[in-house]
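SEQUENCE AND FOLD
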Amino acid sequence: MRMKRRTYRRLRALSLVIIALALLGIIGGALSGSPSRSSALPKPTPTPVLARASATSGTRHTRARHRRHRHRRRITPVVAVATTPAAAPAPAGCHPLSDEGTCYEPGEYCRYDDEGMTGVAGDGETITCEDNDGWRWEPS
């Protein structure tokens, strides 16, 4: 059974249109910067690196060496690591200490474990955990 010439031409024209549209879609997607499958993955976060001064950090490389090693060198971003100031040390005579390691002061809420307990505030005043509109450290 032989295909009619008219049917063959229509089929060929239709396939060429489909191929052209597919190529335009691929090229248009690449030019528009649409994300590919590999860029849909989450990007790794930079690892904090402490900057160190070395003896060779001030030397300059020649252009030939720079060109040769350019493809191997990866620049690692230096992330500043913020340091939190340490809490002021509690005076030696106060007890009990809060969960943060500081001395209790009169009027502060006390823990359930400290109910009825007597201690020493940061200024050396004796305090007791009493039920005064909630369990609070009160001067004794």
User: Anything to note?
Assistant: Helices lie at 5-32, 63-69. The mean pLDDT is 75. DSSP finds two helices and three strands in the chain. The longest strand covers residues 126-131.
